[in-house]
Amino acid sequence: MFIPLRVYIPFVIPFLQLAYSTKPDCHPDERYVSLYECSHVYKTAWSWTLMREYDIDVWRRDRRICCPPPGNRIPSTDICGQSPLVPRIVGGSDARPHEFPWMAMLLYLNRSSLEILPLCAGSLINNRYVVTSAHCVVGVPDDLSLKNVRLGEHDITNNPAYDPKCRNQASRCALPNLEVGVEEIIVHGRFNSSFLGRIQNDIALLRLKMPVRYSTGIQPICLQNPDPFTKSRFEVAGWGITNNGSFSRVLQRGVIREKELRVCAGRIRFLDFNVHSQICAGGDGGVDTCSGDSGGPLMATVGRMDNTRIYLAGITSYGSQKCGAIGFPGVYTKTSAFLGWIRGLLRP
């Protein structure tokens, strides 16, 4: 009576082995290797988020994963700065899902009310680091602390994972977002934010608690452009305050133009504008970055047609108290002036 059992077991085991050994779809810059060969993932503090992202099964003997590059590498243009081919609209408008997949929302814990508040933004530059403004992490109120970074966000009131319209593909939706804790905050050593002005070196790096995997909704922005930006046209994006005075629930985007030095020197001379480390842009009215957009990207598109890449030209720093006021441009930290600082701090 035990003969059938002895006959079928050899067929069951190869089937299970085949099911578990199927190679998943790895990203072009990932390697399919044993978990233990991918030390920067294996040595990361394990969490359900990490196990889900890398499909780690604790019961599986052969734990193989799609291993990303270590966190001290800057992605090449084969990976970074890729945005869907969508029409570029002049003026503020809702961004399309995944139009800027490097956008990062900084989430703060209010220790008094226990609320989670999205108060700043940032840009993903590789699978482990987000760049933002120093003033987003220095000098914040005592009852606030930076808790997490949310990637792949589009509409803060709607998580597609729980929306039946999205699950049934009845409407255009973004993919579910990913929230990752912040392991380390690195502020530029010469950051100055005195009340009387001289806001300089307004840049910080956030090291995430785990390396994230790239997807349609989560990708890095390019950092280093071999040629200086010759165009004065930039794009900005964020969930900050809009014309109606409230924070936007949907990611907003707009186009602004760089201003001549004489314009900036006249409007913001009391803040000691530095042409070598800052960019002055906007002030035409209607489109501007505002409260809540701090730390977000000033983006430059390089290339033509389907061979374009988007670079992080600047980081939203400060501007007029009346956002969008005609004649009052905003100031952005010039990323190219800090590339050496960024590269020198990246760790695997």
UniProtKB/TrEMBL annotation:
E.C. code: 3.4.21.10
Any GO BP annotation: proteolysis
SMART domains xref list: Tryp_SPc
UniProt cross-references to Pfam families, sorted A to Z: Trypsin
One annotated GO molecular function: serine-type endopeptidase activity
PROSITE patterns in UniProt: TRYPSIN_DOM, TRYPSIN_SER
Enzyme class: hydrolase
First and last residue of the signal peptide: 1-21
The entry's keywords: Calcium, Disulfide bond, Hydrolase, Metal-binding, Protease, Serine protease, Signal, Zymogen
CDD domains noted in UniProt: Tryp_SPc
Domain spans labelled Peptidase S1: 89-347
Protein's recorded name: Acrosin
Organism of derivation: Drosophila yakuba (Fruit fly)
Species classification: Eukaryota, Metazoa, Ecdysozoa, Arthropoda, Hexapoda
Protein's gene: Dyak\GE25618
